[in-house]
């Protein structure tokens, strides 16, 4: 099972302003591939801006402290943001977390169409996402 850094998510109340800042000041364009298709009717309806450095995306997501409650999930990835890795075998990764005693929230495809996402905390309370594209 392989993990690769995919994106960093910053939760913000200023999606447009933040997106403009990263595009204009840091010269980060909109990704040309693999832009997530948001599932706005499954629990998170916030706006998201997308930029990237050519390898890693930055998702500028509208802060939503209630998304976890609406989806029945303990881990809320859009309250404070998160770091995200793509994997090639989400089932194997979940088994590995279970063996290691790391609890996680399985969001399935509630936030992004075609992605199976899980979220969990590191020892300091930072949210980590691991996802797999369903077509992979």
Notes on the protein architecture:
The protein is α/β, with parallel strands linked by helices. The protein has one domain: 2,3-Dihydroxybiphenyl 1,2-Dioxygenase, domain 1, CATH 3.10.180. The protein contains 3 helices and 7 strands; from the N terminus they run E-H-E-E-H-E-H-E-E-E. The mean pLDDT is 94.
Tell me the number of structural domains: 1
Determine the N-to-C terminus distance.
Answer: 13 Å
Look up the CATH topology.
2,3-Dihydroxybiphenyl 1,2-Dioxygenase, domain 1
Biggest β-sheet: count, sense, barrel?
A: 7 strands, mixed
* CATH top level class name: Alpha Beta
Strand content: 25-35%
Q: How does CATH name the architecture?
A: Roll
Which strand order do you get reading across the main beta sheet? Answer: 2-3-1-4-7-6-5
Radius of gyration: 14 Å
Average pLDDT level: 94
Structural class: alpha/beta
How many distinct helices?
A: 3
Helix % is 10-25%
Protein name: VOC family protein
InterPro entries: Glyas_Bleomycin-R_OHBP_Dase, Glyas_Fos-R_dOase_dom, GlyoxalaseI/FosfomycinResist, VOC_core
Domain VOC: 4-133
């Amino acid at each position: 099972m392989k993990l690769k850094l995919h994106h960093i998510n910053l939760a913000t109340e200023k999606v447009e302003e933040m997106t403009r800042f990263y595009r204009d000041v840091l010269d980060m364009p909109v990704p040309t591939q693999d832009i997530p298709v948001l599932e706005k009717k499954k629990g998170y309806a916030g706006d998201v801006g997308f930029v990237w450095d050519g390898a890693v995306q930055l998702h500028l997501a509208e802060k939503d402290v209630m998304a976890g409650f609406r989806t029945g999930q303990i881990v809320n990835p859009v309250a404070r943001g998160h770091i995200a890795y793509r994997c090639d075998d989400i089932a194997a990764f979940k088994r590995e977390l279970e063996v290691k005693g790391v609890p996680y929230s399985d969001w399935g495809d509630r936030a992004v169409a075609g992605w199976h996402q899980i979220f969990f905390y590191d020892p300091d309370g930072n949210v980590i996402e691991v996802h797999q594209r369903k077509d992979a």
